[in-house]
Amino acid sequence: MRFLALLLLLPSLARAGLIFDDAWIKNLPPSVPVRAGYLTVTNPDSQGVKIVAVRGEGFTRIEIHRSVMRDGEMHMDQLQELEIGAGQSLRFEPGGLHLMMYPAKPTRPGESYRISIELGDGSIRTIEMTVKK
Amino acid sequence: MPMNKSSIAAVAILALVVGFSLSWYLVHKQPVQLESGTWFGDKARPLPDFELIDQDGRKMTRENLRGKWSLMFFGFTHCPDVCPTTLQTLGQMMRRIDDPDVAAAVQVIFVSVDPERDTPQILRDYVTYFDPGFIAATAPMEKLRQLTRPLGIAHEIRNRIGDSMEYDVDHSAAIVLVNPDAEFAGLFGAPQDAGAMARDMTRIVEHN
């Protein structure tokens, strides 16, 4: 019986899944219809994982963007998916990788939103993101 | 030939004048060494003629920039990442300038390169969110280019389908420094650091 339980646990031990840290949304005045979201994603597994979509209640759309400097000019590149390699940690941070979020109504500092992150295998992870000034 | 009293006095005065001029020259005309930007020194050049509309709907021309050191940042309010980060850095910079006289001599101007979406009222809400003293301005695209082109500030609307109001704006991330004579006097490249810029602005204001 114990052996069976262990056997059932094994796949989840082998794939601990992504770890999300420091997830927050930068607040902006109500007249601005976009927000940027930041977080750190760590993949402790021995296989790469892809983020293929991000959704959240309270947001009409969330995209993965990267601010890139080319010839002294800032561009925003949209990424259709984002791969986090085995053992890799990716940091979404100001001036780089960020979630481009379109709130349905203006956000306020202190609010929390549940954000769903869809992975390449179709599974969904839900994280909480807090709005900060 | 023995010198009389008045010629001794004349020589002494001359020596004093030369000494003062030299020390003034050494203090004020030496190149300013900046931590985080480029100082043009003698190569500062007058801003072009331009006309923008500020956050209160008033006209802003080159003449309005006289008398203060202006830091001009070019961006747009629908920019979620780089523009808020830069304006936040500039707000922190203002709060880190220790000397109130220096802080009073510096102003931050956010110039929107997205005049279609950024009305004066939206701009006022936006910049004062970062610092109540920040100024914002914009102008129709052709008028905007009369200012941005000579400064080497590039900006371009991208990914716009028809008249859709959803699009990106690529823009230079450098901050333009304008001196109290309304001359283009330096540049702070991205990414900017609040502490280094506060020290640099203190050096610049105290030096001049």
Report on this structure.
By secondary structure, chain A is mainly beta. Chain A has one helix and ten strands; from the N terminus they run H-E-E-E-E-E-E-E-E-E-E. Chain B has 208 residues and is of the alpha+beta class. Chain B has two domains: 1-30; 33-207, Glutaredoxin. Chain B is built from six helices and eleven strands. In chain B, helix 2 packs across helix 6 (194-207). The termini of chain B are far apart. Chains A and B meet through strand 4, strand 5 and strand 8 of A and helix 2, helix 4 and strand 9 of B. Strand 5 of chain A pairs antiparallel with strand 9 (168-172) of chain B.
Keywords:
heterodimer; A: 133 residues; mainly beta; Immunoglobulin-like; 1 helix; globular; B: 208 residues; 9-stranded mixed beta sheet; two-stranded antiparallel sheet; 23% strand
